[in-house]
Backbone:
């Protein structure tokens, strides 16, 4: 479910990371040997989203008041802090892991099971780590870009990372009821989908190839996260400026 969220958030990420880059520039940034499959799956995911997830998210946003939606998001963010904590430990980022532990304690207790993010107001910001980033930290290459059914943009490395993320997340192991578990995953998905409706409207009229735009944004965002905001700069071939990848 977390990768579906990334599929929907990448329009905002692209605006921040690529600015006004043209479609041709986005397509040139990274090789895409699976493009035929990826574009087909992108179209399937988009159709399912328009037919199912987006309408449900719109009703969800219309029926529930904003404070309730925010509390639902805080609740799932608190559960995700367990995933962040484990991955910070695996990356030897013990100072950040200590922050994550404190966030979990304060938000679970004073924040009423995470419904209120009191930790952020106490100077303990939300960190972002997952198993895909941990694999990247230990030198595992990202592999090909791939669009997953329903989950959206990913890479080979991040796809393997999904297994670790789902295993660590308390939603997967904190209850013996499959009904409760899948209900929580569904609520998390709809809450996140509702959160990007306004962002989506802001880019609705942009004259871009949405597939290339999303791919470029996702890859840049993931590289930025893996390298903690300091991704390596690409090597440009100044003797052949028309094709910097050669």
Residues:
């Amino acid at each position: 479910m977390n990768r579906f969220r990334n599929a929907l958030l990448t329009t905002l990420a692209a605006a921040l990371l690529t600015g006004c880059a043209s479609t041709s520039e986005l397509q040139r940034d990274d090789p895409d040997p699976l493009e035929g499959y990826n574009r087909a799956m992108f179209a399937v995911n988009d159709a399912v989203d328009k037919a199912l997830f987006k309408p449900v998210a719109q009703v969800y946003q219309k029926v529930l008041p904003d404070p309730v939606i925010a509390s639902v998001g805080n609740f799932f963010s608190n559960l995700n802090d367990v995933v962040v904590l484990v991955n910070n430990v695996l990356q030897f980022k013990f100072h950040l892991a200590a922050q994550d532990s404190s966030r979990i304690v304060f938000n679970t207790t004073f924040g009423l099971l995470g419904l209120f993010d009191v930790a952020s107001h106490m100077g303990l910001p939300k960190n972002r780590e997952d198993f895909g980033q941990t694999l990247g930290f230990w030198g595992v290459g990202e592999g090909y870009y791939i669009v997953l059914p329903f989950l959206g943009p990913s890479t080979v490395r991040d796809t393997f990372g999904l297994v670790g993320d789902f295993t660590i997340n308390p939603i997967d192991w904190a209850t013996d009821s499959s009904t409760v578990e899948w209900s929580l995953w569904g609520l998390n998905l709809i809450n996140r989908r509702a959160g990007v409706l306004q962002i989506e409207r802001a880019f609705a009229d942009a004259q871009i190839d949405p597939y290339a735009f999303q791919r470029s944004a996702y890859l840049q965002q993931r590289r930025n996260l893996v390298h903690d905001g300091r991704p390596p700069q690409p090597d440009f071939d100044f003797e052949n400026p028309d094709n910097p990848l050669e």
